[in-house]
Design brief:
Length: about 190
């Protein structure tokens, strides 16, 4: 009978431990609660950032696209192309005295010309509100084509001071385009 009582006590003890353990499994410790709260807080912060970033990624406006085009002309054609070539033909180097690979420079201008064609299509598709910008772009685009074709068909040599490479019209039209775009963005 003692053996049976021991078994019963053991059985009741184990049942109590199991009940207690199952109850504890449902109850989280303070550390677990804190960890979960931190994880939820981080997840909410990330979700808010993602939502904020998505809201900021709106479709570009015509004005912002025109600003992108203006910067493209300044960097890709003027800074990295025509200025470099002007220095090369006069001094045999770039503006800071660095070596210039003229073929590479003209090749890069060719890639910029491809991108310019995409911008031509965009600008020509603008409505009448942008006619003044379209008019200036048309002149700038033609002059850019002229300068690029001159380089492609008759590339200058280093220190070739007799080589005529007049960027005056390009500068005039580029400045006018940039000014018109700035005015649109300041309205």
């Amino acid at each position: 009978m003692l053996n049976r009582n021991k078994k019963m006590v053991l059985f009741i003890g184990m049942a109590s431990v199991m009940l207690l353990a199952s109850g504890c499994a449902k109850e989280k410790t303070d550390e677990e609660k804190l960890a979960e709260a931190v994880q939820n807080s981080l997840a909410n912060a990330v979700n808010k950032q993602d939502a904020s970033a998505s809201a900021k990624k709106e479709e570009p406006t015509v004005e912002s696209k025109l600003e992108e085009i203006s910067k493209f002309i300044t960097v890709s054609f003027w800074n990295e192309g025509f200025v470099t070539i002007s220095w090369y033909k006069n001094s045999g180097t770039g503006s800071t005295g660095e070596k210039i690979d003229i073929d590479f420079t003209i090749e890069r201008l060719g890639k910029a010309m491809e991108k310019k064609e995409e911008y031509n299509t965009f600008i020509q598709g603008l409505d009448g509100k942008y006619d003044h910008v379209k008019q200036v772009w048309s002149k700038l685009s033609v002059e850019t084509d002229n300068l690029y074709n001159q380089l492609k068909n008759n590339k200058p040599q280093a220190n070739e001071k007799s080589y005529k490479f007049d960027t005056g019209l390009f500068q005039q039209y580029s400045k006018a385009f940039d000014d018109d775009v700035r005015k649109l963005n300041n309205k």
